[in-house]
Amino acid sequence: MKSMKKIIALIFLCSLSFASLFAQGKPDARKEWLNHNYKRAIEICEDELKANPRGINSYVVLCWALVDNKQYAEGEQRATVARRIWPDDVRLIEILGEAKYYLDKNAEALELFQLYVARTRESSATRLGRVYFLTGEIYIRQAKYEHADIALSMAVRLEPNMTNWWLRLGYAREMAKDYRNAIDAYDKALKQNPSLADAASGKSRCQSHL
User: Fold this and answer.
1) Of 23, 75, 183, 193, whose CB has the highest number of CB atoms within 10 Å?
2) What DSSP designation does 122 have?
């Protein structure tokens, strides 16, 4: 009886070991994406979607990796397909907006970014700062500099350590002829990176108007 119990216990432990080895060996697309191994993340997601064509997380990570790998047209196409299945998933809304932004489809991107902002909360939206930044960039493209100021101000409020965002906020304010506040934004950028030539020249231009 004791030997039987030992055998059962041994089988159980072996099962746990095999399960642990299997889990460790399973490729992790999100981990690869976070490590900037975008091509590998794409490969893993494609394999996952072959096994489960309705895998929402596989679609999301796939689209993130495609856009970060600058495969914007493919990212747009795959995110569009995914949204036919999950039209309300905010992650897909955001990444489709990014793909369209990089494809210069400004009106469509702006509509998606506005939808993302409306459907998320600051506490749970990890890409909200990025969305406000890209929204500001669209308004700069459209020469709507006061709109850009509002969007970029929100971006740096959410993520104050993004040097380039302060730089672009300074530029938007400078173009809107709000020179004092432009200098403040350029100073924030220079505080983070004192050798940032664009911020230094922008500040100098603004000072010449005062």
Assistant:
1) 75
2) T
CB atoms within 10 A of CB 130: 18
Residue 70, burial from CB neighbour count under 10 angstroms (0-12, 13-18, 19+): exposed
Structure tokens at 203: 């500040």
Q: Which tokens is 50 given?
A: 């072959």
Q: In angstroms, rounded to a whole number, what is the distance separating the alpha carbons of residues 93 and 108?
A: 11
Burial bucket for residue 80 (CB in 10 Å: 0-12, 13-18, 19+): middle
Q: What is d(CA 190, CA 133) in angstroms, rounded to the nearest whole number?
A: 19
Each residue's pLDDT tens digit, 149-197? 999 999 999 999 999 999 999 999 999 999 999 999 999 999 999 999 9
DSSP conformation letters of 127-138 = THHHHHHHHHHH
CA-based nearest residue to 75, from 61, 90, 86? 61
Question: What is the Cα–Cα distance from 197 to 208, expressed in whole angstroms?
Answer: 17
H-type helices in the chain, by residue range?
Answer: 2-25, 29-34, 38-51, 56-68, 72-85, 90-102, 106-119, 128-141, 145-158, 163-175, 179-192, 197-208
Would you say how long the chain is, in residues? 210
Q: What is the pTM of this model?
A: 0.85
